[in-house]
Design brief:
globular; alpha/beta; 12 strands; about 375 residues; about 30% helix
Length: about 375
């Protein structure tokens, strides 16, 4: 479906954003239930609305010190980590910086595991025992982190996990066993043609029905189509988090997957995400937009809310509007139990105190995985 670009006045003044923040803006968007005609009005006699928690995915810790990020009042962020990051002094240092800044900003991280970023090790997958050992080291370093995803874009055939569904399911069981009370996502899937068959194979191999799944619906969102999101909802149970999504501004990765790209297009996609995709089911409970800011004007993938010139883009104004529009909606009921045993309790987004190691702030890693198709 083609949408006309929306008219937005940019840049937004920081004074306006500060006013939004001090007014008590919650990082939760209350969405109308499917079939409600898209109205954003909240009837006092209606049941609790479908509430979606909003976060940002970005590898750069500078996001947390940006006053425009603070003004949004967001309390969730996503980070991708190599499965063997604890074996690398450089990766540990970078991770320490990101975690320290997230914690100082009162932001709860979602940590997603990825292939090894060490040269020559990209295709090497660990045994479940080795994966568990690496996870326990990371868990002991950051005991306040409670949200984990088993593997980033596990069905992408550029990943070594594409045809290793049973192994990823074993990693998932390992995370559940080693992190009682945590939210553990089965996997994060890209909306490619093999997504549904991959998810079905995973459910058979996991021997448990996962309570949480991740979806990167870049293709559907940027084509204004809900088909891929509906397809994953049909073949899974439990909550579905959009762990990476957003409107494409520009892409230079030679991908053969085609869709529009521009700042105006990205703004329309952001609006479509909240008004059409996130309203498909109450099972959709989180949306992580990727990413906060573009690093350079030549990034291979750019779906950022803030441009390389440090100016906010139209998609940022859409996000401000969506968050601001619902700040008076009542709180939702308590969330479902976490994806562990029946005795587990739902983890709090408020992190307990610990002594996270510190390190000098390094530049963004060149080995950071590229998002999207």
């Amino acid at each position: 479906m083609t949408r006309r670009p929306i008219s937005l006045a940019l840049p937004i003044s920081l004074a306006v954003l500060a006013a939004i923040f001090t007014a008590g803006l919650l990082a939760a968007v209350a969405l109308p239930r499917p079939g409600g005609g898209g109205s954003r009005a909240h009837r006092s006699d209606a049941p609790y609305p479908h509430v979606v928690l909003v976060g940002i995915g970005d590898q750069k810790p500078a996001m947390f010190s940006d006053p425009r990020f603070a003004a949004l009042g967001l309390r969730h962020a996503r980070l991708t980590v190599a499965w063997d990051a604890m074996d690398s002094r450089r990766q540990r240092a970078r991770l320490d910086v990101w975690m320290r800044h997230a914690r100082a900003a009162h932001v709860a991280p979602l940590v997603t595991f990825d292939h090894s970023w060490r040269r020559g090790h990209h295709r090497q997958l660990p045994s479940p025992g080795r994966f568990g050992h690496e996870f326990r080291m990371l868990r002991s370093r950051y005991p306040w982190v409670r949200d984990y995803s088993t593997w980033n874009e596990a069905n992408l055939c550029g990943e070594p996990t594409c045809h290793r569904v049973a192994l990823v399911a074993a990693y998932y069981r390992t995370l559940r066993h080693n992190c009682p009370g945590c939210h553990v996502l089965a996997a994060e899937l890209l909306d490619l043609p093999n997504m549904v068959s991959w998810a079905r194979q995973f459910r058979r191999a996991a021997r448990v029905d996962p309570h949480f799944w991740g979806l990167h619906n870049y293709i559907g969102a940027n084509r204004f189509s809900d088909a891929s999101t509906r397809a994953l909802l049909r073949v899974t149970h439990g909550q579905l988090w959009f762990t990476e999504t957003g409107g494409l501004v520009v892409r230079r990765n030679r991908s053969k997957v085609h869709f529009r790209q521009s700042a105006a297009h990205a703004a329309n996609v952001t609006r479509y995400l909240f008004h059409s995709l996130a309203t498909l089911s109450p099972r959709i409970t989180r949306v992580y937009l990727y990413e906060w800011n573009a690093l350079t004007s030549r990034d291979s993938w750019d779906s950022a809310l803030i441009g390389a010139d440090r100016r906010p883009r139209p998609a940022y104004a859409v996000l401000v509007h969506e968050l601001d529009a619902f700040r008076h909606i009542p709180a939702p009921p308590p969330s479902a139990p976490s994806d562990t045993t029946a005795s587990d309790t739902t983890p709090s987004d408020t992190a307990p105190t610990d002594t996270t190691p510190t390190a000098p702030s390094p530049a963004a890693s060149a080995s950071t995985p590229a998002p999207g198709p």
